[in-house]
Amino acid sequence: MKTSSSTIAAAAVAFAQAGSALQLATTDINSVKAAAKTVSKGLYVFHNAAATTGQFNQPQPWFWWLSGSGWTGLMDYTVYTNDTTYKADILSALAKNVGPKYDFVPPEQAGWEANDDQAYWVYNALTAMEYGFDTLPGAPTWDVIATNAFNLYAQRWQIDSTTCGGGLKWQYNPQANGWTYKNAVTNGAFFQTAARLARYTGDQKYADWATKIWDWSRSVGLVSADYHVYDGTSDDKGANCSSVNHDEWSYNIATYLHGAAHMANFTDDPVWEQHVQGFVNTAAQVFFTPAKTGVMFEQKCEPTHSCTTDQTSFKASLSRWLGKTAVLVPSVRTTIMNLLAKSAAGAAQSCAGNGNSTCGVSWSGTGFDGQSDFGVELSALETIQSLLVFQAPPFAVKNPKDDKATPATNIAVPATHSNCARRSR
Ligand SMILES: *[C@@H]1O[C@H](CO)[C@@H](O)[C@H](O)[C@H]1NC(C)=O
Ligand SMILES: *[C@@H]1O[C@H](CO)[C@@H](O)[C@H](O)[C@H]1NC(C)=O
Ligand SMILES: *[C@@H]1O[C@H](CO)[C@@H](O)[C@H](O)[C@H]1NC(C)=O
Ligand SMILES: *[C@@H]1O[C@H](CO)[C@@H](O)[C@H](O)[C@H]1NC(C)=O
């Protein structure tokens, strides 16, 4: 489907009347790129290379995770548009936060960093691994960094499994508030990390872990039989995960959706594909229905105008992972791209604030609603740029099956030797 130039012209008039609203023709790649560029600038007003909250100005201290999500958004932007404006800063921020053990456990965040905070930085490593993004100077490759984090999660799972028959706790520090909570964003993150490593490496060990985390999540009811994803469950005072907090947030379902998409792609098993279809259908019912507009919304807080600084960013996760799922699982492609196109158009018309295209929280057709922050800009950026997801290179695999030219044996000369050799010549 292609938007006719007269439709675009009519839309342009409507936008002109709205003042500074962002122009977006959702079927025109150049228009999407231009809109994403404008919104990326809106996100980047928060950049601060000296900030210890992940190189973006964030409320202290626990919005470090949100910066991690922001860098993934900008990495996607770089890959989807070929605009390298942010590339050096992305690499610098990742280098500053990856930590001395290359696992995104930097000493600066020690004491309060939770599993899910770490995960939102690890997604950068997984994304870089899949798109062949530049490695950090002197650091291991991105798959090694992601594996380091995976290994920590696996160890913590063993420790946490004395209750509830399994499940990662939200916090890995027993002193931290929330140590008794076993939640969807955390277990979904471990599930997704395992699934992405399985698809990339082809190693069954990761797929087995993904299946184990999936089975546990289903057994305690974090993921329901009809693909709702609930916020969390607890082992406090012997509760043993017997009851579930049924709040539904868009980033929770998105986290499981994208893990299932990698499993479907890796296994080519119709059962995983059904799980993906189930999540897409449930997400469409729960998160795309304000006044039947079909535009994405955060149903738990948007209708009451009460979304907080981290909640405004959750739609970024849903758009990001819906888009990539459309690439990995062909049977949901049309459904997903229609949801994203409507939402991107809705987001763009909200970007009419401050006379400079600042975006709003609500996208269902009322212009700028007056609430803006880092998470708002990130959600709008990911939703608009997700229309470019098919511009990205194919998801990489570690050892391409058709690449028989390279011998499998490790005969590579260590870097230090070749450097010496070069110097002595
Ligand atoms: C848009 O205007 C607001 C309010 O003046 C300002 O804080 C923000 O930095 C501006 N955004 C851009 C991209 O210049
Ligand atoms: C980015 O560059 C690649 C390789 O040159 C190309 O295939 C892709 O279409 C470009 N993406 C965009 C959005 O222009
Ligand atoms: C806690 O739940 C797990 C998983 O259902 C079960 O195996 C275990 O026996 C339960 N523990 C207690 C003390 O009830
Ligand atoms: C896996 O994803 C690729 C795109 O990266 C797609 O071409 C392929 O059809 C998918 N395979 C399966 C089994 O879904």
Automatic annotation (TrEMBL):
Signal peptide start-end: 1-21
GO molecular function, a single term: mannan endo-1,6-alpha-mannosidase activity
InterPro entries from the UniProt entry: 6-hairpin_glycosidase_sf, Glyco_hydro_76, Mannan-1_6-alpha_mannosidase
Family, similarity comment: Belongs to the glycosyl hydrolase 76 family.
Keyword check for GTP-binding: no
GO BP terms: carbohydrate catabolic process; fungal-type cell wall biogenesis
Name the record gives this protein: Mannan endo-1,6-alpha-mannosidase
Catalytic activity, EC: 3.2.1.101
Pfam families linked: Glyco_hydro_76
Source organism, top-level taxon: Eukaryota
Sorted UniProt keywords: Glycoprotein, Glycosidase, Hydrolase, Signal
Region Disordered: start-end pairs: 400-425
Catalytic activity: Random hydrolysis of (1->6)-alpha-D-mannosidic linkages in unbranched (1->6)-mannans
